[in-house]
Amino acid sequence: MELEGSELGTKEYWENSYTREIRNYQSHGDVGEIWFDEDSQQRIVNWLLKQENVDKQTARVLDLGCGNGMFLIALGNEGYTQLTGVDYSPKAIELAKGIAKDQSLNINYDVADLTQSDPPNLGIYNIVHDKGTYDAVSLCPENPKEKRTNYLKTVAQLLSDEHSLFIITSCNWTEEELLVSFDEFFVKHCSIPTPTFKFGGKVGNVVTSVVFKKRPSN
């Protein structure tokens, strides 16, 4: 199944969006909009804080499609120190760097497009986070399937070992669909509960949050 292409899947859309948000931040300190499910960020942070095997001081965290960087800001305020964010929008990185500097947090940011067949080498991480980035890749008007495959392959290479975590929140794909699409590279570790709705006697989720681990190599 493919999603219909949208401007939300284009770099131009996000460059224009973050250009506006930089102006708003510089004018009145507004860090910008949160794309779908504002509570998701705190749910993920709360879940991570409960993981006894995750050390705040040593866990290397990478936020994919970091946007304004507020997820990493939240982790930094909780004591995490090894934080990196990437986005293919230079304007997003510019905004994120400005916010982190103003909050006196040492967070690394880089411009990177992970949908290419030969992506940049970003190192390896214990936790990789995606909120809406896989969705945006899926909405790309050109070659979305190829770009999703490149993206997932790259994410697998970013995980340091089979104990590392890939945490994804999606508003376009169900958990079942993610399990099928990710099967080549990842295995499900657990689900993070998200808000539900009831319609026609059936219960569904507004968004999906799933934690994956790297599929063991044969």
Give an overview of the whole structure:
This protein has 218 residues and is α/β, with parallel strands linked by helices. It has a single domain (7-214), classed as Rossmann fold (3-Layer(aba) Sandwich). The chain has helices at residues 11-28, 40-49, 70-77, 90-102, 133-138, 144-158, 175-182; strands spanning 60-64, 82-87, 108-111, 127-131, 165-170, 186-191, 196-199, 202-205, 208-214. A 7-stranded mixed beta sheet has the order 3-2-1-4-5-9-6, sandwiched between helices. A two-stranded antiparallel ribbon has the order 7-8. It starts with 10 loop residues before the first helix and ends with a strand. The mean pLDDT is 88.
**SSE string:** HHEHEHEEHHEHEEEE
Assigned CATH superfamily? Vaccinia Virus protein VP39
Number of strands: 9
How much of the sequence lies in strands comes to 15-25%
Order of strands in the sheet with most strands: 3-2-1-4-5-9-6
- Main CATH class: Alpha Beta
Q: Which architecture per CATH?
A: 3-Layer(aba) Sandwich
Helicity, as a percent range? 25-40%
Number of helical elements: 7
Main structural class = alpha/beta
Q: What distance separates the N and C termini?
A: 29 Å
Rounded mean pLDDT is 88
Could you tell me the CATH topology label. Answer: Rossmann fold
Count of domain modules: 1
Q: Whole-number radius of gyration?
A: 17 Å
Unreliable stretches (pLDDT < 50, length at least 5) are none
